Amino acid sequence: MNWFKQFYQVWRRECYLAFTDVGVLIFFFLLPLAYPVIYTIIYNPEVVTDVPAVVVDHDRSAASRDFVRTIDATQGIHVIGYAADMAEAREAMATKKCYSVFEIPADYGRLIGGGRQATVSLYQDMSLLVRYRQVLFSITGVQQYETLAVTAERVATNGGGLVTMVSGLPIGTQANIAGNPSQGFASFIIPGIVILILQQGMLMGITMLAGTRRDRRRRDSLHHVDATDLGYGATVTVLGRAACYFTLYLPMAYFVMAIVPPMFELPQMGSPKDYMPFIMVMLLATAFLGQTIQIFVRERETSMVLIVFTSVIFLFLSGLTWPRYAFSPFWKAVSDLVPATWGVQGFVHINSNGASLADVKDLLWPLWALTGAYFVTAVLLRHFTRPSREETALAREEWQAEMDRDEVHADA
């Protein structure tokens, strides 16, 4: 019973410190509440449309003009005009008047009319991958359409009565985009980003609390001990603080995963009964990770520098923008140590692909392993750095006396 009493006192003290620290409140509440909403608003509408393009037409035939009208009719490309030559087209791209250049050869109409293959060159600005992807998808659709039209014309010319039997290409293609039917950027990136926000926000809050404790130790004149530290054992202190962070962040996790997607009509095929238990394990691992890395935080400001610096690194390591199987062994090992890596992978499987908790058990076990490993490291670091009971009691008495003096001065 004494252990549980100490556990409750540590939990209550940590919650009090969190709610009385404006910086921690920002990381624990404002960040997970605002960032997912702001990010999703920025990425709406999800699909890039009407990418400006310039055409260099060396043929000037009816076939080339029909090709230009076809690409201009697509959702992703908007032909803003013709260029006399490639030099003029390069100047338009250099000044960002356009992001694509189509060069039609002089023999385009003759080759198409003669039943032979013609080649249209595409020059694309690669500064933004989303633009390149949209233009590539649009021109691929145009290529399939033109192939179908040419095939139908050839059959009509040479096949006689067979023309009525031609309804499409010999082998048709149909795209079924699972988990992201609109192929939108927000539907793709937001499910992974929100998990990283949960991890980074919790880590910044935990390390800021640690920096505050060290600031108090520097201000205290007695033994450099933080008077708000209860001085209990390592295990009960680590578990009590982790319980505080977990209870504060659990509602935030439910908000970003169950409430934000319906607000913006993002795909949501998973069930809370599957992804909430999964994310709960990730939150535990993050709580213990924060108490492990807080040894590196000497000041409150250090937390922002340390965690914000790693945010972009953790984003790449999560496998959201680059597949993990393509990592080098070193970086794959580093990514395995980040709870958000497994959190992103598991939540995307559940939320976007409709997987159950049993389907992602191979991702859940590494999270449990990280939870246990970071719990051990946090306990060991706490054991070797915690003050003695005598030092804590003396520091608390001095701190209370100082608080009483401040109260008397305030009344006076």
Structural notes for this entry:
The protein is mainly α. The protein folds into 2 domains: 2-43 and 184-407, no CATH class; 51-165, abc type-2 transporter like fold (3-Layer(aba) Sandwich). 66% of the residues lie in helices and 5% in strands. The protein contains 14 helices and 4 strands. Strands 2-1-3-4 form a 4-stranded mixed sheet, sandwiched between helices. Helix 9 (272-293) runs antiparallel to helix 12 (339-353). It is elongated and about 95 Å long. The two termini are 43 Å apart.
Summarize the structure.
With about 400 residues, the chain is mainly alpha-helical. About 65% of the residues lie in helices and about 5% in strands.
- Residues in β-strands, percent: 5-15%
Determine the N-to-C terminus distance: 43 Å
Gyration radius (Cα, Å) is 30 Å
Strand line-up in the sheet with most strands: 2-1-3-4
Percent helix: 55-70%
Major β-sheet annotation? 4 strands, mixed
> What's the total number of strands?
4
- Could you give the order of the helices and strands? HHEHEHEHEHHHHHHHHH
Q: What's the helix count?
A: 14
Secondary-structure-based class equals mainly alpha
Show unreliable segments: 161-166
How many structural domains? 2
User: What's the overall average pLDDT, rounded?
Assistant: 82
Shape: elongated
